[in-house]
Amino acid sequence: MAQAGRANAGRPVVRRVLALVVATLGIGVLTLTPGGADDPAAAGRSLWTTVACLTCSRAWLADVISNLALFVPLGAALVAVGVPVRRAVLTGAAMSLLIEILQLSGVTAGRTPAIADLVSNTLGTWVGCLVARHGPSWVSPSVPRARALRNGWAALCTAVWIVLARALQPATPVQPSAAVSVSALPFTPGYGWFAANAVRTDVNGVSVAHLGNGPVIVAAQRSRSSTARVTVRGRDTRSGMVPVVFVHEPAMTGVDARTTRAHLLVAQHGDDASLASDLRAPRWGLQMPELRVPGAFAPGRDSVLLQAQVTTRWWHLAWSDPSQPLQRHEATLTLSPAIGWALVQSIVPAGARVGVMVTAVWLFLWFAPLGYWSASSSRSGRAGPKSQSGQCLDAVLWAAGVLAVGWGAAAVTGTSPVSVAEGAWCVLAAVSGVGLQSLVCAARLRDAATFERA
């Protein structure tokens, strides 16, 4: 009996040490491996300016959120294995400083060190320490605390969905129609030259004359539905985003990437075709969504036909090989709060193949806590504890309330609402939170019974 008790007591320690190892390895893989796309806003700036400036990066707020979230597991794991909070925060800061020094020395390609990363990493470690210290009271809260957590989480979900709907709006006014004219820009700001040839280009149904290589740059106001059709011969050898068609507002004629942005940007991104549009999100320091269709610029392909359409609700991109008309690949990106994860992180692009899975995880993480704390707040009342079916009904109602606000925000902003399938998944996530709360309560009762028998 005693040996079994010692064995059971040792299991949490092993799990905590394993969590610490996984958190440390995860940080190393995501920060010290080659990667990262070039930031157009960084063009022309010195390395010291890039390192010292806190908000110079085009997606500085998304980087802060990503770095903070990356170090939260480290802080939680350090406290869980018995490290004091102050020492845990210093450990996270030291690890972050080492990473920035390695990036500065050029050990990893495509990554730029920044003081903002050091600050956000340290802050993330501190948040992780708070999660480890106060987490038990969130997992098994009292009824008043559970109600406060449920109400606070519902308010946070509502606020985030409203902000995301606003962030997905066009950054420039939308016109009923837009005339196409020649651009005064000599090149695409911040992106460089396109080494291949765009031999035939149509923008909003208007043929655009273009000779030789280089991007097709067009001035046109944003319309409700902007389209581009271009045939490209050859490919650029760079791995980042290289514009093929760059359509911008006529009033934007600066060479600074932060002031002149495309509301229709068709590009080559490695071997993929890419589509993007200027939204409010990048102007707030969040990530720019990017729709990518793989294989368009695969080595050995002589030419490719790209067709793109941008509206306030969705983007569509397709490519085909003129020599093989039946070979067609396409993708659509819906601009709804469900892709909010793509705006607040800098790891997975919105058009990635794992986008559906990441969206499902994102929505689950928002709505499962709502059901969990709703069930925790229903353990007592004037009529006694609610049945599990009653708890599930409460969770469904709370989830429906948040979804209703999200649909209203989408209607006001002109973006796309969450689809019926996504809404059903959100409700299922809330109900799953109720089931998870029941499992936690059953585990606590089982542990208590085991302790009494021992």
Characteristics of this structure?
six-stranded antiparallel β-sheet, 454 residues, globular, 3 domains, Jelly Rolls, alpha+beta, 11 helices, disordered N terminus
Q: What's this, in brief?
A:
This protein is of the alpha+beta class and 454 residues long. Helices cover 48% and strands 17% of the residues.
Helix content: 40-55%
Number of strands: 12
Low-confidence stretches: 1-9
- Helix run count: 11
Number of domains: 3
Question: Percent of residues in beta strands?
Answer: 15-25%
CATH topology of the largest domain: Jelly Rolls
State the shape.
globular
Describe this structure in words.
- By secondary structure, the protein is an alpha+beta fold.
- It folds into three domains: 1-139, no CATH class; 141-168 and 336-454, no CATH class; 180-333, Jelly Rolls (Sandwich), CATH 2.60.120.
- 48% of the residues lie in helices and 17% in strands.
- The protein contains eleven helices and twelve strands.
- It has helices at residues 2-32, 47-52, 60-80, 85-104, 115-139, 143-167, 280-283, 341-344, 355-376, 388-413, 420-453, and strands spanning 180-182, 197-203, 206-208, 216-220, 225-233, 241-248, 262-269, 272-276, 291-293, 303-311, 314-321, 324-334.
- A six-stranded mixed β-sheet has the order 1-4-6-7-8-9, with no helix packed on it. A six-stranded antiparallel β-sheet has the order 3-2-5-10-11-12, with no helix packed on it.
- A hairpin with a 2-residue loop joins strand 7 and strand 8.
- Helix 3 (60-80) packs across helix 4 and helix 10 packs antiparallel against helix 11 (420-453).
- The radius of gyration is 25 Å and the shape is globular.
